[in-house]
Amino acid sequence: MVRLAQQSRRRICALPVGASAGGASDVSVIGRESLVSRWMCLVSSYSPSCLFSTGTGCAGARDEESDPEPLPLPLPPPTRPVLVRDFIRSALYDPDHGYFSKRSGSVGVLDRSINFNQLQGRNAYMRHLHSLYKKHDIAWFTPVELFKPWYAHGIAEAILRTANLSVPLKIYEIGGGSGTCAKCIMDYMMLNAPPKIYNNMTYISVEISPALAKKQLETVGDVQSHLSRYHVECRDASDRSGWGNVDAQPCWVIMLEVLDNLPHDLIFSPNQVSAWMEVWVEKVQGSGEISEIYKPALDPLITRCIEITGMDKQNVAHDNQVLSSLKHVWSKAFPKSRRAWMPTGCLKLLDVLHWALPNMSLIASDFSYLPDVRISGDGAPLVSVKKDGRTIDYDSYLDAKGDADIFFPTDFSMLELIDHHCSGWLNQQPGSNSSRPIKKRRTITLDTASFMEEFGLPSKTRTKDGYNPLLDDFKNTKFYLSVPTYNAK
User: Which Pfam families does the record associate with it (predicted)?
Assistant: First the structure.
């Protein structure tokens, strides 16, 4: 689910079964690592003293006895005003000070698959996870690793059922982590697809981390025949120049927990009816502190995001003149400021992907909801740091100085709007007389359980008493599938 031991964003984070969406907890919840171990504490009496840490699912907790990772030098304040997305990008990815720059510890790789059918139930599963984390002494296991090969096999089956098999199969994975997803998908194709599918397929990992690019080649290379079909391109997927010429051949793009760490912008309105403004960050003169400043929304990515999501229409009165006047009077008498986080990084990435791969099909998986977010604004992120073996949530994203993970929930309805916008519309072609937008893509959003029940083998991740962590515990994660309609003339 992402994206990159540093840059891979595929740490799992799920809501505990029975937990309320906004429910309070005895222990403060903190970021990606806290979501993992919070779940462990809530569902198991095995380790009541476990730390709350944050991951993208209910996979397991970080061992509190392990030494904390060395922190990068603090990110210096910006020398000039920058948009919030640029501040977040530096806080996460600055090569010298960013959160991911110094955290090159590899994503955990299991020696062998977990035999869920031999575990009695939830408590036995939690004890097994605890032993795995102690043995491997790593920060997290990705869901594709914990549930290998079955998690990746479900994705492979979804591709096989919907791919255009009249052309050679080509798969791109953005942020391939340790390479487990790629290897398991290629294993599945080799063993289950018609021979010509595997023999002619190409699998390309677009990976920003050199260390993980090397690890992916090692993982996939366990099966010698995979290497001639597998390539790693170490680059930023959102940089258009890295894609070269447009490739109009059908292909698949996989993004597992990539969207949650993409830079976002922040917009602000002082009351209920005023126009949105874009938020910038600047250094406070004479100190090392930083603060927000507000400017008219002029940035192209921000204004496009506002338009695509319809947020520009929220401030346009469609009522009669009397109601409109009353709203303005009320907003002045009782002003209530508004803040919203805009997925401009997602917009930029999908812009590039639809330009470079106009006939791509997409599978993306990520958080649909994050609990106990302290930062204000619709779609606000969790910002968490680990200090002295404890994970702490920050109250402001401005507190992130390269020491904190910053990750966002994905609004899948907004993702769908952006996807359609970036792909264009059929009636926008020259000579079209239609005024009603016609979608060029078919899309569907499924929760993780529904996706795996449709395309996976749920029996393989079920324990003896019927408990199934893959189906039961990923309540705040979803899959998004988007394919071309293939009916353009």
Answer: Methyltransf_28
